[in-house]
Amino acid sequence: MSTGFEIPSHEALLAEQATVQAKKFQARLLAKYSSYIFPGQSWREPRGSAVVDFVRPIIGDAERATLDGVLEGLSEAKAGEPVKWVDMGGGRALPMRQLGSMPDFKQRLKMTNVDLFNFGLEGVNPDELEYLEGLVPGMTEPEAEPVLITDNVETVQLPEPADIITSVEAMQYLNNPLEAITNWYNQLADNGIMIVATEHDWASWIRYNREPGSSERDETPAKHLLEELSRAGINYAVTDESDWQSGVRPDVDPNRVRIMAIQKKPGTSLRVTKPVTEVWVNPYNFKAAYYEAPTDGSSSTVEVVRTDTSTALGTITLGNIS
């Protein structure tokens, strides 16, 4: 494997992703976001997960966990102050548009979509626009549109700390996914939460460069990240699937994480200590990022750093559930 990988320039990234994203509609709705984050919750008898347990202090005794329920719970915790919600790689931002067209929600949210492109609603045919308007009247109007920041989600700098950061179906296109995770965590308000969710096991696409036949192939950056969060007492939850029908919670393999939720611990930040050495792209344009492997006695790939800043969001307490 080559060790001379260089993160592409912004212009090169735009050119690459313009081709990749042109084949996609960029139009996941709020219900789809919730199904990615909380698998099994939309079934007739909802099934739990570690991530459902993680947000339970926020959503209270709600029968089902949904993203809009989490946003509503955060709003109640902020006692009238708008919840600052940032979606990383949000495409057409339809979930934000849905909530932005609901008067009771619009006043409680300050929404920002970060994406390389301004997709807007251009290219959406009249029948699709009519369907969206029928779903939630007003969601195709300019008033429902969130603030857009056109930038690389891995390195974007937000104008203010976020109460919640989401990333749904975006991790597979990133050259430096660990840099993205640390960047998002560091821009959360104290006690804020970030949620990363995809349809596939994104953690399995984050690897170390190892010599063939190495006995340490079970050691991965994702495994070491979770260990570092645990050592620092940072609340998180990860899962690959919902609980089984019997109620048993399946064991979590750090290499098979699809959904990860982390709460910002006041006075902490994260940093990546190892470079990306190679990025491999499959025929579906998913990227596998390979990091320099830590040697004996060297630092973890992602480190928790103590800071002195404290801008507390509230007193929401979440459990460290994995």
Strand content: 15-25%
Largest sheet: 7 strands, mixed
Mean pLDDT: 90
- Predict the CATH topology: Rossmann fold
* CATH A-level architecture: 3-Layer(aba) Sandwich
Report the order of strands and helices.
HHHHEHHEHEEHEEHEEEEEE
Terminal-residue CA separation: 33 Å
- Tally of strands: 12
Sheet/helix structural class:
alpha/beta
Going by CATH, the homologous superfamily would be Vaccinia Virus protein VP39
The helix fraction, in percent, is 25-40%
Number of helices: 9
Low-confidence stretches: 310-317
Count of discrete domains: 1
- Quick one: overall form? globular
- Spatially, the strands of the biggest sheet line up as 3-2-1-4-5-8-7
CATH domain class: Alpha Beta
Q: Give me the Rg, rounded.
A: 19 Å
Describe what this molecule looks like in 3D.
The protein is of the alpha/beta class. The chain has a single domain (10-306), classed as Vaccinia Virus protein VP39 (Rossmann fold), CATH 3.40.50.150. It contains nine helices and twelve strands. The strands form three sheets. Strands 3-2-1-4-5-8-7 form a seven-stranded mixed β-sheet, sandwiched between helices. A three-stranded mixed β-sheet has the order 6-11-10, with no helix packed on it. It has a two-stranded antiparallel sheet with strand order 9-12. Mean pLDDT is 90; it is low at 310-317.
